[in-house]
Amino acid sequence: MEQFNTLETAIKESRNIVFFGGAGVSTESGIPDFRSANGIFMQETDNEHSPEEIISIDFFKQFPKQYFDFHFNKLVYPDAKPNIAHHFITQLEKIGKNVTVVTQNIDGLHQLAGNSNVLELHGNVQTNYCTHCRKVYMLEELKRDEVGIPRCPIDNHIVRPDIVMYGEALNQTVITEAIKAIQNADLMIIAGTSLAVYPASTFVDFFNGRTLSVINKTPIRTIRNDALIFEDTIGNILKSIKL
Question: Deacetylase sirtuin-type domain spans which residues (predicted)?
Fold first, then answer.
């Protein structure tokens, strides 16, 4: 109970808040994570290639049909809705907090919930662009050919999701903005991530604010002994916080 009270007080006293979320933020919306026992990377595929191989730029270029079969089956969840975590951030904004969301997720649920300042480290499946003319298409606008590959109606080139695949560089502008927000934050809430993957593993090192809170079902590494640690689901913790 004392930790809840401390977090509530930190939220009330903080002006600048960073919410840094991983796949665990979206699992309560029915979207599987990647590395847990039932995660995407642990699931069987229809061929000899692993999920990590399939979600790579080289595989995408060489086997676009197989890539999109996996993409639309495992990475796109058009019926998913924002959950408590996404709406919690919306409420923080409504009470006047300056909240920056830094997310590893690609589902676009933060924007759907109305979160206004979202930095997506790995892009977003909701937006797509032609690999030739660069015209942007939203997910619901995609026109797929007879084998399921999205094609641009203008030039018939492949339309790819605006996500960072394995083998591609992260957007350095997004990383720079995320680090700046973390450096300027009074409160940083880390939720649903193991902090095991770059650059997530280094972001917490840039936080110099008063309160660091971690919400994750399993223990994770932190660099501060005074961090508020909640080993539970994100929904269970955030619904108990009174704003």
Answer: 1-243
What domains sit in the chain, N to C, each tagged with a CATH number? 1-30+82-122+164-243 (3.40.50.1220)
Q: Could you read off the pLDDT of 52-96 as tens digits, one per residue? A: 899 999 999 999 999 999 999 999 999 999 999 999 999 999 999
Whether 27 contacts 235, CB under 8 Å:
no
Q: Could you write out the three-class secondary structure of the chain?
A: CHHHHHHHHHHHHCCEEEEEECCHHHHCCCCCCCCCCCCHHHCCCCCCCCHHHHCEHHHHHHCHHHHHHHHHHHHCCCCCCCCHHHHHHHHHHHCCCEEEEEECCCCCHHHHCCCCCEEECCEEEEEEEECCCCCEEEHHHCEECCCCCEECCCCCCEEEEEECCECCCCCHHHHHHHHHHHHCCCEEEEECCCCCCCCHHHHHHHCCCCEEEEECCCCCCCCCCCCEEECCCHHHHHCCCCC
pTM reported for the whole predicted model: 0.92
Rounded to whole angstroms, how far apart are CA atoms 150 and 157?
Answer: 8
Cα(113)–Cα(63) distance, integer angstroms? 34
Listed residue (203, 209, 194, 205) closest to 176, CA to CA: 203
Active site residues: 122
pLDDT digits (tens, 9 = 90+) for 17-61: 999 999 999 999 999 875 544 545 445 556 678 888 999 999 999
